[in-house]
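Table S2 (continued). Query chain:
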Amino acid sequence: MSANRPQDLFFHLAGQDDNLGDSALRLAYLNAARGEGRRLHIYFGAATPDYTSGFALGRRDRIYTHRPTWLAAGDAARRGIHFLNAGEINPPPGLFPNIHRTRELRRTVDAGGVFIAAGFGIKDPSSIGQVEFDEVLRNAAIVCWRDAPSRDAAGFGDVAPDWAYSLGTPTSQWAPTDERPLLAVTLRFDRPWPGSRWIASVRDLASRTSTRIVTLAQVSRDAPRAVRLAEELDGEYLMPPSMDHATLDAHARGAFKMSRFVVSDRAHGLIIAASEGAYPIGSGADPQKIHRLLATAGLGELVGRYDQIDEFSERLDEHLPLLAPSIDTARDGLAALTKRIHDVIDAD
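Corresponding output:
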């Protein structure tokens, strides 16, 4: 690429406006593409400033609030590089991407551009038997899923851990176990209440490990549940000073840096905590998604139903030493994916 002509990169980064996990994984995706001589064109959909605060945008980044304008800029670019949105997809029966998006992607390719699909996963891989993945997606410069069951169900592409593993503190700088006095708990608002036996098990785990229970919400809709959990667990709800994503990210990471473990059914609550050195214990009514996203990083052994938490507590000691090597390996995999992305961008 000429030094006088920036490379134009086009990102669609819409996500749930109140969900820190949605901005975290997309921030890491965006960071993977940054570099000298690159100009980013970003469409956030209907996102509010709370959501976009999580992206540390630069003065050269071009932000679009009108999708047709963003698409027109892509059509006008010389060899534009288009990045399909990362995160969860839930395709209905039929063509994926839908006919309108497929036409847009074909137009990109016909104009000499390329596109990359890296870091997405299927909500329920067992339910996509009637989904037809278009050839334009199959032939993308990079297709990389965030879990193996998604890739296997689709039948094409590679696998790398979720982008959010690449954020957080280097493992060499983590606080040691004996300087982590907290046990963090965060649960989804839209799942069944875990029940009295689960509450007793978490309290027992805190007692056995001499940790203090705190609860938090990385999704604003989870806050009422976090308050109730603090009451039931004799813990403390850690209220963030603001729910904008930049502030919420610093608040959550500050808690996780002091936590020895995190118990959650939020995939990115577990991933963000693990990236800060808190061992992730996945506990949920339907743990298949969190198991897939943690297993890709070698951390799926202590993920299961609410009634399995006692079993996991008994096995913690053997798994704690595996956390740092697993995070390092996940980050190495994402660094390799980042290099592949740079190679595609720089090819001309």
